[in-house]
Amino acid sequence: MALSNSSMPIFTEFVLLGFSHLLQLQKPLFFLFLVMYILTLLGNTLVILVIRIDQRLHTPMYYFLKNLSWLEIIITTTVTPKMLTLLISKDNTISLFACALQSYVYFVAGSTEVLLLAAMSVDRFVAICIPLRYTAIMNSRVCLLMVLSCWLCSFCSISASMLLKAGLPVCGPNVIDHFFCDTGPLLEMICGDIHFLRVFDLALSCFNLLSSVAVTIVSYICIIVTVMRMPSARGRKKAFGTCTSHITVASLYYGSSIFIYIKPAGSSSVEFNKIATVFNTVVTPVLNPIIYSFRNKTVKDAVRDALQRVQVSLRKET
Question: Which of 20, 81, 143, 209 has the greatest CB tally within 10 Å of its CB?
Answer without folding.
Answer: 209
